[in-house]
Design brief:
Helix 1 packs parallel to helix 3. Helices cover 64% and strands 0% of the residues. The chain has 78 residues and is mostly helical. It contains four helices and no strands.
Amino acid sequence: MPTARRPEAGAAARSKRSARDLLRTGEFHLGRPLAIKRGEVPWPHIESWFTRLASETAAAARHTTLPPDPDTACVEDS
């Protein structure tokens, strides 16, 4: 199975994973799927992972403890 060396795939993976984790925990962490960036992961695996991350993000959004709107007063005080 050929691998795909696509930097945009790594960025998309980080974005999807960050969104899922933010909705689940309320915390934002940057990760870096280097194997994708290095082209070591076959494209069908990446697509499958993206599909799973999208599903997990949707589920996390339904059950998040984050408020529906940002705390603008807190941000404006900074």
